[in-house]
Automatic annotation (TrEMBL):
This is Uncharacterized protein. It comes from the Bacteria.
């Protein structure tokens, strides 16, 4: 079995031809919507439907069945196809097809509690 290439969503969006047909491992904000399954760069991009910051996702039956537990940040391993642009071509940089792995991110063992004053979705760290 081929080992996936760890790549950022930014690199896939910026240079889709470079990754054509490659098996990739990528992390992003996963959204399941009618005619719009996608992996977004950030949760705010999904909230405001900024499709330029997303890739289409051809969800597997297993993903559709688990969608309530998968929404939010996720790690996907899939083949990248710049010609798969979703319904009406809304995801112009391409899509993730033949998904072989999809899991919530980070895994439970790596999750850290947010500081008490942090707002969900907001950046944390030093000002």
């Amino acid at each position: 079995m081929d080992e996936p290439l760890d790549v950022s969503l930014v690199r896939l969006i910026a240079d889709p031809e470079r990754f054509r047909g490659r098996l990739v491992r990528v992390i992003g904000y996963l959204v399941f919507e009618f005619e719009g399954n996608a992996l977004y760069l950030h949760g705010d991009d999904a909230l405001f439907s900024i499709s330029a910051n997303a890739l289409a996702v051809e969800a597997t039956q297993d993903m559709r069945e688990r969608r309530t537990s998968l929404g939010g940040y996720a790690l996907l391993e899939a083949a990248f196809d710049p010609d798969v642009t979703g319904h009406r071509g809304v995801f112009s940089s391409g899509g993730l097809v033949r998904v072989r792995r999809c899991q919530s991110w980070p895994p439970e063992c790596l999750r850290r509690p947010l500081p008490a004053d942090a707002k969900p979705g907001a950046a944390t760290g030093s000002p």
